[in-house]
């Protein structure tokens, strides 16, 4: 394969592929990167992301290719009829022998100097770390106060206010007016932004409608970019259309493609939140009902495992009798101990104090205190005994009978709980609150037959 012409080209027979490759090499090595001005026509956007178009003037035209990695860096959307300036590398498409231009950069006509200034400032601030993602401030999820920095006459203001009123009517919106275009607008926007950063706002929206690069140049000023990063309140930039990029977009904590999108990103939709809240409430109610049914079922299972009232009553009575005996024995033991101690003290007093009359008053006081302590302890035991009796009375089935209930026993003395245990002519004993009765079954109605 030949990349350079042979020394004796006139005597060499070349294939078409070799000729095209040689021409491409000569073109690319002979022509450096060059800026070419013209009008876009026949533009085609491939699914791969590459853009193909024709660049023309009044007398000639040439095919151009803008590769995807270059197209992603554009700050505008190329369209038919636009006047542009393209930085190109002339080449030859070997497969068809077509002369074409590979576009390395593309800018709108007349904006060359501005674009160069934009790229230079962007590179400078980026090298300082002003655009670093780790320095971005997180946006509040539920802002209550939003500051708007824009012109009162801007159409973007109406779009933002309309969107906020629809999505979050509860949010307080404060406007910090400023010119957004013209000489000195960048410094005035920075001053309005500083006022917004000194307010009690939770979030700042910096917005403006679309326009040319000259119209949006105020948002490419270095003073504004540094002011965006200097405050503590997060900033959303919604400047221009989706294809417009400014220095403010890179400096902001979040870039929105349009002012309306900035308002949508600033706060969640109130109606969606209410819908989500209603859904969570329904799920909570269903979970509560499910848990309640589980506890009811568990309560039913535990109820079936409870011992009979008669057994519980007998156990309580035995326990009460035991406590009475222990209390009586303890009281007698304590009384005996106290009496013996008192006798011992009296004996010591008589033998060690030749004149016991001098200490009679103290001995009487000790006797009274001892008797009082013994009586107090006795009363405490009696109170505990009374509480135990009261608990036993609550479990007494006769108390239930007194409310109009009755206990039914068969001839063997077993309690009847289910009508399916009976048959006609059975003789039963009915225990009432007062007295008993002998009855005979004339008809049995089972649970499945009951109405």
Uncertain regions spanning at least 5 consecutive residues: none
CATH superfamily of the largest domain: Hypothetical protein af1403, domain 2
Give the oligomeric state of the chains in this entry, treating copies of one chain as homo and distinct chains as hetero.
single chain
Shape: elongated
Report what the structure shows.
The protein is of the alpha/beta class and 451 residues long. The protein starts with 15 loop residues before the first helix and ends in an 11-residue tail after the last strand. Helix 4 runs parallel beside helix 8, helix 5 runs parallel beside helix 6 and helix 10 runs antiparallel to helix 11. The chain is built from 12 helices and 13 strands. The strands form 3 sheets. It has a 5-stranded mixed barrel with strand order 1-2-3-5-4. The protein has 4 domains: 102 residues, Nucleic acid-binding proteins (OB fold (Dihydrolipoamide Acetyltransferase, E2P), Beta Barrel); 136 residues, Rossmann fold, CATH 3.40.50; 87 residues; 40 residues, no CATH class.
């Amino acid at each position: 394969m030949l990349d350079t012409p042979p020394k004796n080209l006139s005597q060499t027979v070349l294939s078409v592929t070799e000729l095209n490759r040689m021409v491409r090499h000569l073109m690319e090595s002979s022509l450096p990167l060059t800026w070419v001005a013209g009008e876009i026509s026949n533009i085609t956007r491939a699914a791969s992301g590459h853009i193909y178009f024709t660049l023309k003037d009044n007398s000639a035209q040439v095919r151009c290719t803008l590769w995807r990695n270059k197209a992603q860096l554009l700050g505008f959307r190329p369209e038919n009829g636009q006047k542009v300036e393209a930085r190109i590398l002339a080449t030859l498409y070997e497969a068809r022998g077509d002369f074409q231009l590979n576009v390395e950069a593309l800018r709108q006509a007349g904006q060359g100097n501005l674009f160069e200034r934009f790229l230079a400032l962007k590179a400078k601030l980026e090298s300082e770390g002003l655009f670093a993602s780790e320095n971005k401030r997180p946006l509040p999820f539920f802002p209550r106060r939003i500051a708007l920095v824009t012109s009162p006459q801007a159409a973007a203001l109406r779009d933002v206010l309309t969107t906020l009123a629809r999505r979050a009517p509860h949010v307080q919106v404060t406007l910090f007016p400023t010119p957004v275009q013209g000489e000195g607008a960048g410094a005035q926007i920075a001053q309005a932004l500083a006022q917004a950063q000194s307010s009690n706002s939770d979030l700042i929206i910096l917005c403006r409608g679309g326009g040319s690069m000259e119209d949006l140049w105020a948002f490419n000023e270095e003073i504004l970019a540094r002011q965006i990063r200097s405050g503590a309140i997060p900033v959303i930039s919604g400047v221009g259309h989706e294809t417009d990029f400014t220095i403010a977009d890179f400096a902001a904590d979040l870039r929105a493609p349009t002012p309306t999108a900035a308002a949508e990103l600033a706060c969640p939709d109130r109606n969606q939140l209410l819908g989500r809240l209603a859904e969570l409430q329904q799920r909570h109610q269903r979970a509560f009902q499910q848990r309640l049914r589980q506890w009811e079922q568990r309560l039913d299972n535990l109820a079936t495992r409870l011992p009979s009232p008669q057994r519980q009553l007998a156990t309580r009575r035995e326990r009460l009798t035991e406590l009475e005996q222990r209390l009586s024995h303890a009281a007698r033991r304590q009384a005996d101990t106290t009496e013996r101690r008192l006798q011992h003290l009296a004996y010591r007093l008589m033998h060690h104090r030749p004149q016991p009359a001098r200490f009679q008053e103290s001995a009487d006081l000790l006797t009274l205190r001892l008797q009082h302590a013994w009586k107090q302890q006795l009363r405490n035991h009696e109170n505990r005994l009374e509480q135990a009796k009261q608990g036993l009375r609550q479990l007494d089935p006769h108390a239930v009978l007194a409310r109009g209930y009755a206990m039914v026993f068969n001839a063997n003395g077993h309690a009847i709980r289910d009508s399916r245990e009976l048959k006609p002519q059975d003789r039963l004993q009915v225990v009432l609150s007062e007295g008993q009765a002998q009855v005979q079954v004339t008809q049995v109605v089972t649970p499945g037959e009951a109405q």
